[in-house]
Amino acid sequence: MTSFRVKDRGRVKADRPVRFSFDGVAYEGCEGDTVASALLANGVHLMGRGFKYHRPRGPVTAGSEEPNALIGTSRGVGRFEPNTRATVQEIYQGLTTESQNKWPSLKFDVGAINDRLYMLFSAGFYYKTFMWPRSFWDKVYEPFIRRAAGLGKAPVDVDPDHYASRYLYCDVLIVGAGPSGLAAALAAAQTGVNVVVVDEHAEMGGSLLSEPSVGINGKAAWDWLEATLDELGRLPNVRLMTRTTAIGYYHQNMIALCQKLTDHLAELPTDAPRERMWRVRAKQVVLGQGAIERPLVFDGNDRPGVMLASAAQTYLNRYGVKVGNRPVILTSHDSAWYAAFDLADAGAKVGAIVDTRNDIQAALMQQAKARGIETLTGHTATATSGRLRVKSVRVNPVRGGRVGKARTIDCDALLMSGGWTPSLHLFSHTKGSLHWDAEENVYLPGQQTEECHIAGAGRGLWGIAAVLEDGVKAGTAAVRALGHSCDAVRFDVSDDRTGNGVTHKELATDRSPGRAKAFIDFQNDVTAKDIRLAVREGMRSIEHVKRYTTNGMATDQGKMSNMNGLMIASDALQKEAPQVGLTTFRPPYTPTTFGTFAGYHKGSHFELTRKTPIDSWAEEHGAAFEPVALWRRAWYFPKAGETMHMAVSRECKATRESIGIFDASTLGKIEVSGPDAVEFMNRMYTNPWTKLAPGRCRYGLLLGEDGFIRDDGVIGRMRDDLFHVTTTTGGAARVLNMMEDYLQTEWPDLKVWLTSTTEEWATIALNGPNARKLLAPLVEGVDISADAFPHMSVAECTVAGFSSRLFRISFTGELGFEVNVPARHGRALWKKLMQAGRQYDICPYGTETMHVLRAEKGYIIIGQDTDGTVTPQDAGIGWAIGKAKPDFVGKRSLSRPDIVARDRKHLVGLLTDDPKIVLEEGAQIVTDPNQPLPMKMIGHVTSSYWSEALGRSIAMALVAGGHEKMDQTLYIPMPGHTVAAKVTGTVFYDPAGERLKVE
Amino acid sequence: MNAHVTPNSPGPVSLTIVPPFARFSLRIAAASVEAASKAFGLELPVKIGQGQAKDGRAAWCLGPDEWLLHAVETETVQIMEAFARFRPETPHSLTLISDREITIAMEGARAAELLSVACPIDLARIHPGMAKRTVFDSAQVVLLRDGPDHFRLEVWRSFFPHVHELLQIANRELASGY
Amino acid sequence: MLLIHCPYCDDTLPELEFAYAGEAHIARPSDPSELSDEEWRDFLFIRSNARGVHAERWRHIHGCARYFNALRDTVSDKFLRTYKAGEPRPDTSVQEAVK
Amino acid sequence: MTHFSAMSLLKNAFTGNKNWSAQWPDAQPKTEYDVIIVGAGGHGLGAAYYLAKEHGITNVAVIEKGWLGGGNTGRNTTIIRSNYLYDESAGLYDHALDLWENLSTELNYNVMFSKRGVMMLAHNIHDVQSFQRHIHANRLNGVDNCWLTPAEAKEFCPPLNIASDARYPVMGAALQKRAGTARHDAVAWGYARAAAARGVDIIQNCPVLSIKRGPDGAVEGVETGKGFIRAKKIAVSAAGHTSVIMQSADLKMPLESYPLQALVSEPVKPVFPCVVMSNTVHAYISQSDKGELVIGSGTDQYISYSQRGGLPLIEHTVAAICEVFPIFNRMRMLRKWGGIVDVTPDRSAILGKTPVKGLYVNCGWGTGGFKATPGAAHTLAWTVAKDEPHVINAPFTLERFTTGRLIDEAAAAAVAH
Fold first, then answer.
1. Residues B166 and B113 in one domain
2. Among residues B96, B112, B146, which one ends one of the domains?
């Protein structure tokens, strides 16, 4: 295999060979190579296939904007990745890569048949076809289209790598470490402000890396670069970050950076993240992102070996690789001439410089002549040949708009330049305006919305001297905006390669333009003809053209194609480009892994799991858990061999017959404190609070201002000016926020303070006829006998030696207590109670048993028996409303016409005719089960359980007009059968409440 | 390796869990702060973020009418009584929250860097002696800065494992050099 | 992610510390029972949804915990001013940016 | 207008595709129309089409401030389903689904409606209860929706992680097989082409500045960037900008506009066969026919017209996708974008008449308007033509916010206790 490596050129380390593979073939490159440069050094141009026509493709760029040379990379299980740019991926020892979108092989791809059907697959053809017969769409056409989709294959294994993130604040963030960025950094850094410089490449320097012949301040470009980076690197106020791409520019100068940390390493260091997301907040931003060269649009401009002239220059000067031995240059810009000169100087036989322009600077002509390069000015290219690699280019003179006689020039690389497009992606993320420079046919930055400065080629400047100077200006402006002044930084540039050029739509041709395969979007296989067809079909906005043709929607996001597409569309529409529009650049600047966005948030850290102080005991004792809001709660405690049903029945029975113990720590707790606490409670909750004496508690009901139930809980009055409010588990934060809202903005005159104490306390509920017997010996400081401490009492005392707030309340209908102790003692208290309860066969129970026991008593669960559309009257708890109160949150809404309507859904009990049938929660209820679909549904089952205590099933349901349907039989149609059930009240067990009174 | 580093958190920053102490949330009108200072025996700072410490007692202003108080645990009752005494004439709320949070102490030259993995504020503007309520990842925290390289993070008990584990992951990351 | 100036902390901090709380200056009627159904609907549901300068409430929920008001341009998302709860809406003819 | 057929496609291919004509003419406004529709998204263009086709009203203008289909029609994640809980919603969305199934044929435009199935994941007991409630209600409403066990869900969607120790384990899923996706742009283009063919004027790049009302309060026309245009009937279908336009007619709306973001990955070979939604972790995903994973995010917390959106939300969304589909961790995000959605207090649409004579509105779709496109357009056309509600859109009134008869699907899926 011929080597295209040029001795003594490039920055790669020729003495450090690196072996890697591509499509199963081993290759050797050098340290510092990308996959593309290393393959090119081995004479390999064919690296991919187009999306639609599967035409063979090679790299067209040397950067992250590459549309063609996309490969799969892998390094062991879980580390496969599709669509990686070969032009960016650095090689390392053992790197495995493969080509994509081909079958059976890259060189022979069956899909290339599409290329022959080119005319049929015109833009928008999908929309016009695949409709007959109709049934074929689902079964034939769509599966076919979907199979053809995509480029690489998705990963199949879980990614073992980890991803990191950081927040960073700085004074000046400089994006792009080319000459403009470095100049800005030099200017800004001298003032001592915090400067961060980022660059997406492995090395800083930008275009300087490709232009070693320029001299700066008397030094060769690379020497100056080294000295400058060294100088900046030494400054404590400067941070230089390579392999770091600014992917998005967000509000108020927040820039997201993606830093690649390990993709270039042969050995993965322990604990090192693969990539890191930086969320940088900069006071000032300098964007020195440079410019991207435009391809020329002509028939056959996509063959492997056809690439941008600047890319060839980069491969030569940065990587020491000749992209061909017999290149031809095709250009409309002076810049490509230098590529020709550099290649000639490196020993390539340049076939010709073909320039579309008639008048070329004499100096360039001279230099070409000096190197013996033929120059064809005023020429166009009309075709190329070569299947897997370009073999020749057909060129014609253009005189007075007429295309003359063709001539064919052999070549092994065709290097094109259609001018340069300023890279303004990040600027356009800011919604900054762009203005159209009709002279240069480019968009330049206009009005700014953020504190940013654009420097260098991004403003359409050309040549190292101009760009350096502009960088200084931007850096100076940035620090001035921060109130600093800085000394002038001047550069003396020699051998600068200045120049200019023109831009084109498609190049002129003597052949039928309708047959030309002149590509604009290489990856998506969009041609000039497609753009014109879209316009012909009425697509008059560039967004329509883009969406109709998919131009600019490839993985380069239009970096290669947008401007050419716009030029052709505006020509077809006979309108100025700005009237046709501008497609918006979206973040990220280059495609960025999901892992980087997810950062630490994976697995158990995707979202934190809140656990109570008693959770560890439950886990040790085999509890099954259920997630409730962010918490996990013990669901039930199965013994060996028990199903959930068996465990719950046992837990219910034990609690009703003796005693059960339950971890209620997740309930929200809020201290409502201050002289106006009672007034505040009166306004927030539906219930009256004034007459509640200290030491007593009451069930509290909270509505939204719309009158619907939001939350509930038992509330204890600790002192005249202090309430201990409990909320539902999921409602804790919401309720506190709502209370603060009213307190701070509606009633700031009230002297009340709110403090969340949810996590201060561990809460253990004891329920069952033996609850007092168990507890009494452990309690000090309060007499908990039935008379002294009646139902709905609260007291401060100690329990088992721990300071405690003790409530006598019940959510089961049994004699019940809730013990609150400081959280750190929760587990210890639990263990003591378990030990003390052994004589009563104390039974730990979980949320499921809690649900059953409360349902037997008809106690509602907010969010299960209510759903955000239920009023207190609907839920049958109108008694909780303080009728005499003039106002409370939500009161006014309760008198709206449709809230007092008779057909509202009411919460009722349901008893199935067959007591063995447990209804499904969520099952729908009808009056006539024999009606046709769609049936008239009058409600649904909200809660449904097997009641061990009653020996039958019970259910609650929301039923339209339910309070007036007592004793009626309703029907629950299930798949294949219907269940009949009778409407009842919601209290199924101990309706008189006798069990609370146990001595 | 630093002597403070526990076996499961190798990294340049020492992460230790602070033993229990008395912690209160004090809410009182700014105009009445003097009475509170007297009761607590420490002049309460009045600018949000500022702190004050003396003789084992410390206070930080977290909001326009909110202070975080620290003291040794044995003085809990004594402090509560001191405040209770002036409550009738100067209404306020003093809530014991010793157990609500767990406190992580962080020490090391790279402590601020470690925090920056998930703390979105500009740590350079939190000077030694200051405290701020903020967030660390998805958890609300109170961040106290004791010195250039010394922080404490007060985290609600149930959020603690998440925060602590993230800090450990990040600490290992720092150790990796990447 | 926005940067928001809290008028209580007198500090400009990341949006992650703040919770949006809807349009500002919609005072709860002192006696809702006097309102017609239409008036009550207006209080509950009708919002200006301004395209341009919008007076809105934020809560510095993970900071000083205060609710405050802000004028923000909903087209650019830029804050013009933040001010304490209870203060009147500032004159927006002077469009003065908050630091 | 060329009728699209296999023959026309072949014929044009052989003639170099030179003879295709514009799919819709670029109309300039006349001085008066019978009906003006504000907003040329799928909803507005569809309403124009049905006005012309079903009600014979062809003197219609659809006025768009930008390019047609450039609002939420072209910015959404294209999910189509009808497995809603309430009869009102199920009726509307199922009507839309019926229309979706024939839309390509009806419009002679392939909108690529793909019945690949929409699967909604249950991650906790509350989700399970809620989905069961939906499934039972859907069954009795004649809407297909079935319950899948975790294993069945995985079989239907192989990349799904059903490990029981996941932070959000999959406890089952509700699957509507008849649901799926469509090619969003094609919906706007197809309606535009079919409406234009029946005489509707589509006027782009023409902002509607205000709605003018006469002394009797009835609408008289619209002031636009291209002058005043008279009409006795005006239907506003302008998504996030509706409240601004309605305000010019002195009608304040119960609407707030929020930024909603979405994103796509780089294209890969088919790996994701259906649509998966998880309301609990906020992840919505399908794979486009081009191979990109199309992912929906949530709304930012503050109202905005900036179409910008913040980073934290995107980070959360992507993390959620990787939690449910861990194999996608090394996939790359290609682009993300923002739209503006208008949200009502009960998160259901307002569709029909307003208190202003001659003024109709179609708004408040929040994050779910695309799926309703044909149904909303069809019933709105009915209401505009007859000046009375269609039985399907009758519940979606403005009055419900006064009376309290809300259609609150989101509240019905109330958060856990």
1. yes
2. B96
Cβ partners under 8 Å of residue A691, min gap 6 = none
Task: Tell me if residue A40 falls in helix, strand or coil.
Answer: helix
Q: Which of A144, A548, A648, A588 is nearest to D261 (CA)?
A: A588
Strand A379-385 with A392-399, pairing: antiparallel
Tally of domains in chain B? 2
Strand, helix or coil for residue A847 = helix
A671 conformational bin, left if phi > 0, alpha if psi -120 to 50, beta if neither: beta
The torsion region of residue A538 among left (phi > 0), alpha (psi -120 to 50) and beta comes to: left
A contact chains, 3+ CB pairs < 8 A: B, C, D
**Beta strand ranges found along D308-370 (DSSP E):** 332-343, 350-353, 359-363
Q: Last residue of a domain, which of A757, A780, A796?
A: A757
- Give Cα separations from D347 to D227, D343, D402 (angstroms): 35, 6, 15
- Residues of the domain holding A747: 667-757
Q: Is B62 on the interface with C (CB under 8 A)?
A: yes
Count of domains forming chain C? 1
Q: How many CB pairs under 8 A join B and C?
A: 39
Q: Do C64 and B120 touch (CB under 8 A)?
A: no
Do A727 and A668 form a contact (C-beta atoms < 8 A)?
yes
Best mutation site among A600, A667, A749 for testing chain B: the one with the most B CBs within 10 Å?
A: A600
Q: Indicate if A286 and A171 belong to the same structural domain.
A: yes
Nearest neighbour of B176 by CB, restricted to A169, A271, A630: A271
The CATH number that applies at residue C73 is 3.30.2270.10
DSSP secondary structure of C17-53: G-EEEEES--PPPS-GGGS-HHHHHHHHH-----SSE
Pair (A30, A63) in one structural domain: yes
- Judge whether A252 is closer than 8 Å to chain C, CB to CB: yes
Nearest-Cα residue of chain A relative to residue C84: A745
Query: Taking the model in full, what pTM does it have?
Result: 0.96
Q: Cα separation of A170 and A173, whole Å?
A: 7
Burial A76-87 (b: 16+ CB within 10 A, else e): eebbbbbbbbbb
Q: Note whether B15 and B35 are same-domain residues.
A: no
For chain D, 417 residues long, the average pLDDT of each consecutive 10-residue run is 83 84 94 98 98 98 96 95 94 97 96 96 92 95 96 98 94 97 97 98 97 97 98 96 96 95 96 95 93 93 90 95 96 95 95 97 94 98 98 96 88 50
- What residues contact residue A831 under an 8 Å CB cut-off, 6+ apart? A617
Using 70 as the pLDDT threshold, list the residues of chain A that sit under it.
Answer: 1-2
Residue A111: predicted pLDDT: 85
**Tokens for A47?**
């690296």
* Domain housing B148: 4-19+100-175
Over residues D65-96, the pLDDT tens digits come to 999 999 999 999 999 999 999 999 999 999 99
Q: Tell me, yes or no, whether A590 lies in a domain.
A: no
Is the separation of the CB atoms in D341 and D264 below 8 Å?
no
Distance of CA A977 to the CA centre of its chain: 46
Residue A354 to residue A508: CA distance in whole angstroms? 13
Q: Does B49 touch chain C (CB under 8 A)?
A: yes
> By the 8 A CB rule, do A426 and A249 touch?
yes
pLDDT tens by residue, A606-659: 999 999 999 999 999 999 999 999 999 999 999 999 999 999 999 999 999 999
Q: What is the DSSP letter of A433?
A: -
Residue D39 contacts residue D239 (beta carbons within 8 Å)? yes
Are residues A650 and A769 both part of a single domain? yes
Domain boundary among the residues B43, B78, B96 is at B96
Instruction: Determine contact, residues A908/A965, Cβ cutoff 8 Å.
Output: yes
Same-domain pairing of B85 and B116: no
